Amino acid sequence: MAVNAKKIVLYALVVFVLYVIITDPAKAASYVQIGFEGISDAARAIGDFMTWAANGGKN
């Protein structure tokens, strides 16, 4: 029963994404840009942490 609920939620999400893309492509592009900026910031933060840890935790 849980698998069917997951499929329904997934299909609803796909339909919503397609609706946003079709009705307002500029807003959809903005959402994608925000997502990629978030991923980029997270990767940069992880890189900064790893550099800090590799230097023995020194500033």
What do you see in this structure?
The chain contains two helices and no strands. It has 59 residues and is mostly helical. The protein has one domain. α1 (2-23) crosses α2. The longest helix has 30 residues, at 25-54. The chain is elongated, with a radius of gyration of 19 Å. The model has no long low-confidence stretch (mean pLDDT 91). This is Secreted protein.
Strand portion, in percent?
A: under 5%
Poorly predicted sequence stretches spanning 5 or more consecutive residues = none
Note the total helix count: 2
Mean pLDDT comes to 91
Q: Quick one: how many beta strands?
A: 0
> Would you tell me the structural class of the helices and strands?
mainly alpha
Total number of distinct structural domains = 1
Helix content: over 70%
Roughly how many Å apart are the termini? 53 Å
N-to-C SSE string, H for helix and E for strand: HH
Largest sheet: none
Shape: elongated
Radius of gyration over alpha carbons?
A: 19 Å
List the helices and strands and how they pair.
Layout: H1 2-23, H2 25-54
In short:
It comes from Streptomyces graminearus. With 59 residues, the protein is mainly alpha-helical.
